């Protein structure tokens, strides 16, 4: 990990802003292909465009479900995810029902994740628990349910909440998951040194809009 270029294989190059244009997505994909990032992460409306732009690369196309609030019914969220898979998405990053987690309705949280897991059984599923809104006990329970539901990754943040990934959260997730699933740190990865620390703490993916700056050894600008 001393060579910052090694970071490329961890990076989900991300653009989820509401005002993102087709030209913005094309640029994102061009950068991802040029630097060999793991995936691009874009809103569902741009899946087809991203697939076209990346057709000759090995970069995966990731999209989101129930994003960024997580406040859909399990059936709605699952259908959204299923449609994205039908369109060709390689990976889906879903948001849990955060309100249910805060209310202690863990049965609903689990059913929500399970519904999306069933709809995405052939692709990678990452589950965003939005750590900035959860107590430590809630983070533990949410991560346990991600494991129970059979998802592939637990992910810290949407980038639209009040905070992003922290080293403490990654360390906590790593202690719970014990390497059984991946961990995605999203938001707050601002320097190559930050990225390395997150990876050393247990992160196996990094969600960032500043992947180019990171692999070039620069500090990220404002954003995800």
TrEMBL record:
Class in the EC hierarchy, top level: lyase
Assigned EC number: 4.1.2.4
Keyword hit for rRNA processing: no
Keyword Oxidoreductase: no
Recorded superkingdom: Bacteria
Catalyzed chemical reaction(s): 2-deoxy-D-ribose 5-phosphate = D-glyceraldehyde 3-phosphate + acetaldehyde
SMART domains reported in the protein's UniProt record: DeoC
Matches recorded under SUPFAM superfamilies: Aldolase (SSF51569)
Pathway: Carbohydrate degradation; 2-deoxy-D-ribose 1-phosphate degradation; D-glyceraldehyde 3-phosphate and acetaldehyde from 2-deoxy-alpha-D-ribose 1-phosphate: step 2/2
Active site: 93 (proton donor/acceptor), 155 (schiff-base intermediate with acetaldehyde), 184 (proton donor/acceptor)
Annotated localization: Cytoplasm
A Pfam match: DeoC
Gene3D superfamilies assigned to the protein according to its UniProt record, in alphabetical order: Aldolase class I
InterPro entries, sorted: Aldolase_TIM (IPR013785), DeoC (IPR011343), DeoC/FbaB/LacD_aldolase (IPR002915), DeoC_typeI (IPR028581)
Function noted in UniProt: Catalyzes a reversible aldol reaction between acetaldehyde and D-glyceraldehyde 3-phosphate to generate 2-deoxy-D-ribose 5-phosphate.
PANTHER family: DEOXYRIBOSE-PHOSPHATE ALDOLASE
HAMAP family linked to this entry: DeoC_type1
Family membership noted in the UniProt record: Belongs to the DeoC/FbaB aldolase family. DeoC type 1 subfamily.
The protein's name: Deoxyribose-phosphate aldolase
Gene: deoC
């Amino acid at each position: 990990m001393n060579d910052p270029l090694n970071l490329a294989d961890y990076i989900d190059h991300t653009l989820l802003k509401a005002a993102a244009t087709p030209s913005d997505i094309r640029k994102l994909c061009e950068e991802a292909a040029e630097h060999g990032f793991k995936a691009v992460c874009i809103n569902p409306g741009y899946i087809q465009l991203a697939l076209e732009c990346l057709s000759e690369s090995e970069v995966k196309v990731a999209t989101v479900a129930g994003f960024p609030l997580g406040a859909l019914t399990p059936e709605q969220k699952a259908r959204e995810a299923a449609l994205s898979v039908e369109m060709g998405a390689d990976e889906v990053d879903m948001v849990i029902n955060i309100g249910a987690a805060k209310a202690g309705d863990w049965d609903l949280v689990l059913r929500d994740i399970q519904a999306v897991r069933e709809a995405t059984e052939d692709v990678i599923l990452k589950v965003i628990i939005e750590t900035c809104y959860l107590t430590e006990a809630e983070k533990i329970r949410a991560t346990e349910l991600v494991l129970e539901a059979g998802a592939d990754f637990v992910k810290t943040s949407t980038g639209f909440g009040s905070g992003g990934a922290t080293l403490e959260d990654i360390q906590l997730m790593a202690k719970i998951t014990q390497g059984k699933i991946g961990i995605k740190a999203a938001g707050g990865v601002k320097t190559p040194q930050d990225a390395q620390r997150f990876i050393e703490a247990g992160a196996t993916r990094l969600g960032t809009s500043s992947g180019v700056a990171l692999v070039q050894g620069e500090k990220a600008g404002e954003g995800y």
